Amino acid sequence: MAVARRTSRDIRSESRLIVVRALLAAGETTRNELAEATGLSPATVSTVVGDLLKYGIAAETGLIGNGIGRPTTGLRFNADRGRVAGVYVEDKYLEATVFDAALGRLATVNASAETPVEEADDVIDWIVRILDTALDRAGAERGDLLGVGVLLPGGMQRPVKSAPTPGGIWLHLDRLRDRLGLPVVVDNPLKAIATAELWLGAGRRSGNIVTVSLGYGVGAGIVQDGAVVRGATDSAGEWGHSLLVFDGRLCQCGRKGCVEAYIGALGMRQTVAELDPGHPLLDGPDGYVFLHAFTDAAEAGDPVAVAALDRTAHYLGAALTDLVAVLNPEVIALTGWPDFPACRERVMPIVWGRIRADAPGSAAEDLEIELVGRHGMEGIAAIALERFMRDVGLVTTRVLPAL
Amino acid sequence: MAVARRTSRDIRSESRLIVVRALLAAGETTRNELAEATGLSPATVSTVVGDLLKYGIAAETGLIGNGIGRPTTGLRFNADRGRVAGVYVEDKYLEATVFDAALGRLATVNASAETPVEEADDVIDWIVRILDTALDRAGAERGDLLGVGVLLPGGMQRPVKSAPTPGGIWLHLDRLRDRLGLPVVVDNPLKAIATAELWLGAGRRSGNIVTVSLGYGVGAGIVQDGAVVRGATDSAGEWGHSLLVFDGRLCQCGRKGCVEAYIGALGMRQTVAELDPGHPLLDGPDGYVFLHAFTDAAEAGDPVAVAALDRTAHYLGAALTDLVAVLNPEVIALTGWPDFPACRERVMPIVWGRIRADAPGSAAEDLEIELVGRHGMEGIAAIALERFMRDVGLVTTRVLPAL
User: Fold this and answer.
1) How many Cβ atoms sit within 10 Å of the Cβ of residue B189?
2) Rounded to a whole number, what is the distance in Å from the CA of A253 to chain B's nearest CA?
3) What superfamily does domain A202-373 belong to in CATH?
4) What is the ipTM of this complex?
5) Coiled-coil region(s) at which residues (chains A, B) (predicted)?
6) Do domains B8-77 and B81-188+379-391 have the same CATH topology?
7) Nearest to B237 among A157, A255, A326 (CB)
8) What pLDDT, in 10s, does the model give residues B79-92?
9) pLDDT digits over A317-361, tens only?
10) Shortest CA distance to B160 belongs to which of B150, B148, B170?
11) What is the pTM of this model?
12) Least CB–CB distance from B3: residue in A204, A231, A246
């Protein structure tokens, strides 16, 4: 990577992305309001708005008068510029969502398979079928799509040596692109959730955000200076596989003592087992089902579940404190089990206590933690939209991967 | 913090900083070579070079001919544009270094006190005296200085509530500025070392760097997309106070299990004590003296020191793997004890083994680790130079603090 490859074209690109995001956030607005919201000069905003009108991404809404001064022309994001789709694919589960161009959700269709879908062509067939169904429900057709974003679980890194994804589809996305005749982008959930937060969430008021996803697996997305941090091989954010305990529990990844081995679903199960190896929760299923059963049991007052949840909250607080120490974000946006009704009141005070006690210096003083619920699906749709703007020449941002 | 406050002025500023750094790196060069090195367009480079010539930061060196085509005008950084000074201050130790404008070191003077210098005015007197001596040795006077950078140890954060620095001088830098009649900038070693690496080290080929300082305390500096990451309250990089062991050893900071409590000087001493509570190394002094005695003992084959050093190398490898997992840098630049002759051959293979085994996916595949030796002093001088360029209107970058 060169020290810098910025040109005046990149600068224009950056201004355009900033205005696009501000327009999306604003609903109906004006050029002056956009200048105020973005900090860009009125002249720059006017130029950018001109470009966005030309490409149909912005639309004028007629004159707005506030009774003071002369009326100005209203602006909005043109949601009907087209549609974008997000596809989430696991080996036995598939989901397709169709959004309007303003990232409003129009239709979601999901499907599951009895046995893992293993062949790449079968996975592609499945994606195309479910996507077409979702388009149909949204009253749209393939030709309306500006792009398709595919969300693949797991640590997706380049160069691809192994493909831990159904049917090795990550290696065959060109076939999907050819079948659909549409631009396809692919990314992993950590980057997609960070992008969703940047476009639709805390990114509207801060450029320095960490998104934290807590589910079966755990991970983070990093937004720095208004851009998603990707890292040298696209694997930044693997906080779930940073250490909580040197030489501690064996993690699924093979390393010992990872954060995920304590606050992922399997980790919580192990905490229950350490407290009471014969606890009935351990007879039930794993994953999300366990997460709900476990947190419900804690809410109902089961003493082992309460103790295990409290201990998990301490683990979470400690692991978040590490992010605060290293990255010192303005906002942490949490998605996952801490937002379960059974957890909110019990977990967050413990987490905050740990962060306040242990964060270095004043690092946690102005910190906000949001329990959000931004989805990777919105993020991958935003990435597909960004890709569309790149294809028409409006932005020059690095969008991954080049398909 | 607003989503963005970028204007075309910021863009020009960024181009100028990029060209200044490339010019500093190049020695004698040409406009075309600068365009190639920076990726900026030849037109942008010409404009920027014009600005730099105007402010005396660049100088022309006459015609350069390579025998092919017509000769072009050579360029260099104008080291004689002025001088910049760095001052490092602890309660019983002070160092002042005078650099030329191209950050070449001209003279260093240091001094130590028997008892801590505690009053702010006494600290300021001391700084002025030692700085004047250093200027004298460099054949310069105060009037030659473009600026002075003060390097303060410890976790310096804003807003300042406590002043863990000699004489609370951090709270009284305006007095130092008034005494010297010169612009003064202040920063902590983590940010300064990251800046030095960005300006003079790995920043010449990568924009995605983590600097790691290992000494009495430990910490990191983060360079992302060619800029030093500061964080919401200027405390990003406090990796030394992220966890290695949940509820582990008590750290000096009050938290349990911090990285520093295992790979800082006190941590290594504790590792020796755990292996052999009666070991003679424990009778000697602490800090750097201990570090040298300890690593020398390991090199001489003392079995306890060897075992403790190996264990420390595992701790270091694990803690660096966390940085790789979360930030996925292209380069880690290490400064400190791993570069001691006694450590190089023994420590780094263990560190690399741990990183290769434990880093997620392909995160460590293209990673480089440099044992450098970039100093905070060069970094604080670079920050002072950046501040000078800001004061004359060449750059708009945020430079801390506003004094």
Assistant:
1) 27
2) 8
3) ATPase, nucleotide binding domain (3.30.420.40)
4) 0.88
5) none
6) no
7) A326
8) 999 999 999 988 88
9) 999 999 999 999 999 999 888 888 878 889 999 999 999 999 998
10) B170
11) 0.90
12) A204
